[in-house]
Amino acid sequence: MFDESSGRMAGRAIAITTVSYVDDEPSAFASMLGGLIEANVEGRPEKKKDFDALQARVGIWVTDIDEGVTLDFQRGSLTVHNGLEPERDLTIRAEADTVMNLSNLKIGAFGMPVYYNQVGRAVALKLMQGKLRIDGLLGNLAMLNTVTRIFSVR
Amino acid sequence: MAAEFASDQWAAEFGEQINKSSVYKSAAKGWKWTVGLVIEAEPDKGFPQARALLMDLYEGEARSVKMGTVADAQQCAFIITAPYSRWKEVVKKQLDATKGMLQGKLKLKGDLPTIVRYTKATQEVAECSTRVAVEWPDER
């Protein structure tokens, strides 16, 4: 999806590259997620703070396109892998629309994702229907909230 | 009567469909950027020369939707590029625009957080394209 020649994020100037890609040819999905997180972190100090504190290995698998990535957050840097790599703390499995909704979750009081508006309810419903699966959630709820804050464009 | 794909008439009817959509009007509140859809040539499919659809979208309204050149599209804030047959899949609802972008079948150039914020509006624009009766050059 993402145009390499655009510097991964046309329309914004990036001073620091905090995201790197393991694969010689990152998948479109990997480029998109990496670019999205990079843009969020560079443009928003509160997200940068979360990014600098987060150490986690997070997998995201898009069930209806059979593609996924592993995001390896290491306190201020992110390495993106094509596909699911082992030793993940969290793995999110959902359809493309739900993944996009996750990145549209509003962040409310105390940095908690808001699940009572339209987007939040849609995400919660998918969770209840089993169409959004989060492996590793037990004991990692705070980590999931941090990842959601970094991932969200809201 | 069906409009030839990527013709001036098709572009005008596409714009009309966007302006008729209450879903788009609501979902695109706050959107104020131009979008260029580049349709790459596929001579073997009757589409010999690349063209671009230029969309001036502002606060839920299509102020202008017209055909132009690829160079015109490069001036837009967001550029989505794909070959003729991919766009045909989108218009025929065989390819979901969001999935197409995640898979790299539709290549996006532009500010990612903005386009993600307007996912619903993007999907509705794609939906509007399906409401225009189209004559395809490779189906004549």
Model description:
The complex is a heterodimer of chains A (154) and B (140). With 154 residues, chain A is an alpha/beta fold. Chain A is built from five helices and six strands; from the N terminus they run βααββββααβα. In chain A, a hairpin with a 3-residue loop joins β3 (67-74) and β4. Chain A is globular. With 140 residues, chain B is of the alpha/beta class. Chain B has a single domain (3-134), classed as 2-Layer Sandwich (Nonspecific Lipid-transfer Protein, Chain A), CATH 3.30.1050. Helices cover 39% and strands 26% of the residues of chain B. Chain B is built from seven helices and seven strands. Chain B has helices at residues 8-20, 22-27, 70-73, 84-91, 97-103, 112-117, 119-129, and strands at residues 3-4, 34-40, 51-58, 61-68, 78-83, 107-109, 134-135. In chain B, the strands form two sheets. Chain B has a five-stranded mixed beta sheet with strand order 4-3-2-5-6. In chain B, a hairpin with a 2-residue loop joins β3 and β4 (61-68). The interface between A and B is medium-sized, with 32 and 23 residues.
Summarize the structure.
The complex is a heterodimer of chains A (154) and B (140). With 154 residues, chain A is of the alpha/beta class.
The overall pLDDT average of chain A reads 88
Roughly what percent helix of chain B? Answer: 25-40%
Major sheet of chain A: order of its strands?
1-4-3-2-5-6
Q: Please state the CA-atom Rg of chain A, rounded to the nearest Å.
A: 15 Å
Low-confidence stretches of chain A: 1-15
Label the CATH architecture of chain B. 2-Layer Sandwich
Overall mean pLDDT score of chain B? Answer: 96
Could you give the order of the helices and strands of chain B?
EHHEEEHEHHEHHE
Determine and state the CATH class of chain A.
Alpha Beta
Instruction: Outline the low-pLDDT stretches of chain B.
Output: none
* CATH fold call of chain A: Nonspecific Lipid-transfer Protein, Chain A
Amino- and carboxy-terminal Cα gap of chain B:
14 Å
Q: State the CATH topology of chain B.
A: Nonspecific Lipid-transfer Protein, Chain A
Main beta sheet of chain B? 5 strands, mixed
Tally of separate domains of chain B: 1
What shape does the CA trace of chain A take?
A: globular
Q: Helix- and strand-based class of chain A?
A: alpha/beta
Shape of chain B: globular
Radius of gyration of CA atoms of chain B, rounded to a whole number? 14 Å
